[in-house]
Design a protein that fits this description.
Elements lengths: L6 H28 L7 E5 L8 H14 L5 E5 L13 H16 L7 E5 L3 H4 L3 H15 L9
Parallel strand pairs: 1-2, 2-3
Length: about 150
């Protein structure tokens, strides 16, 4: 079997090699430019805390809190689905159960976080009531935690 190369294949290989070379050069320049600079903020991201109840999510939050203790300026960002799948219900007894869930599985584990905490609503928070429930849900973080040095958004 004879392998032939067409001019198009050769051109594609040349373009790929040129792209990789440019990428490596740019990466090296960026790394060199960053040497000697301090980290201004450490960012920690997670999501789906409401969907992953148990030791796994608690161990992740615990590791984030522990790591934040070494940072001057840390920011924790929860990228949505902080509540369980049914969201933040209108019914007061169900709402109280969800507030207890949030307190025990998200707010209390993060109470030792050394920095700013930001919660971004996800699908679970927007369902069945949308923006009205988001406003109510924001008050949960303020009323259940007294964190004078932290701003919860």
């Amino acid at each position: 079997m004879k392998i032939t190369t067409s001019p198009t294949m050769l051109k594609d290989q040349y373009v790929l090699k040129a792209f990789l070379s440019a990428f490596l050069l740019l990466s090296t320049l960026l790394v060199s430019a960053q040497e000697g600079r301090e980290i201004s903020k450490s960012l920690y991201f997670t999501s789906h805390v409401g969907n992953s109840v148990g030791e796994n999510s608690q161990s992740i939050l615990s590791a984030i809190v522990k790591a934040s203790q070494k940072d001057k300026e840390a920011v924790f960002i929860s990228l949505g689905n902080n509540t369980r799948e049914d969201g933040y219900p209108k019914n007061s007894s169900k709402r109280e159960a969800e507030e207890n869930f949030l307190t025990n599985n998200l707010l209390t584990p993060l109470s030792g976080f050394n920095g700013q905490i930001i919660y971004i609503p996800g699908t679970n928070e927007w369902n069945k009531g949308g923006h009205k429930n988001i406003d109510d849900l924001e008050s949960v973080s303020y009323t259940h935690l007294t964190l004078p040095t932290k701003r919860i958004v």
